[in-house]
Design goal:
Layout: H1 2-32, H2 36-39, H3 53-60, H4 62-95, H5 101-113, H6 116-130, H7 136-160, H8 164-172, H9 177-205, H10 209-214, H11 221-227, H12 237-268
Helix pairs in contact: 1-12, 3-12, 4-7, 4-9, 4-11, 5-7, 7-9, 8-9, 9-12
Membrane topology: Multi-pass membrane protein
Transmembrane segments: 12-33, 68-94, 106-128, 140-159, 180-205, 239-262
Pfam families: BPD_transp_1
Length: 271
Amino acid sequence: MGKLISTTLTRALLGLLIIVALGPILWTVLGAFKELRDIVTPVPKLIFEPTLDNFATILRNPTIRDGLLHSVIVVSASVLVGAVLGIPAAHTLARHARRWGDDVQFFVLSLRFMPPVAIAIPFIVIYLDLGIYDTLFGLILVYLITTISTVIWLAVPAFERVPHDIEEAAAMEGCGPAEVFWRFSLPLAAPSLFGALVFTFVLVWNELLLALTLAAQNATLPVVAASITSLGKEVPWGVINAATVLLVLPPLVFIGLLMGLLNTMVRSGPK
């Protein structure tokens, strides 16, 4: 009897935590399909006539479309370059950097300690001198500080968990360092590396301060979504909810693509 009560209370608590965690997300999604009069009613409406007008308003707005395109370009480029440079660097730190590896890792981690506001003004001055202020290229460059440091920070432990015996056996069979990395180390560390890429993607996708200060005219989607509240005399809650849903969809698509690639690599395994 006591075990039954304990199990029931545990499940009830877990259910309550799930409701608390998912409640705002579900309410935002529902609000994206509501008209303004259904959102601002004193008594919240759970039964309403859904509408796509909020999404139509977003898709008809060239500023929002451009913001989405800018975000896709900037985030994709910064994450891709961060992965190309950060993953091999992390493997080198995990396997070959014996004396100075800890110092380099501490320096990389210290880049994550730095608040964005600390580098915003210096980058404005530098970018104005270089002529790349308010450009997507300049925003990609500053985002590389985040992507490369985050990928290295999360990828080093992933490669350290790869058994040395496998790499040593491959080397004894005649595989060179690059071949050992591509055929054995990378596939075995892939699950953790994909998690690092997802975290990095979400981190850069949601970034607001640097995008606002370094590329105000070439605004990314978070900057555009934040500016919607200033449109008109009343807050367009339905449009804001739709913009929030639109802001969340690309990371979910990115996660789905990585999960599909991960499943393919797991089934194939090291060769």
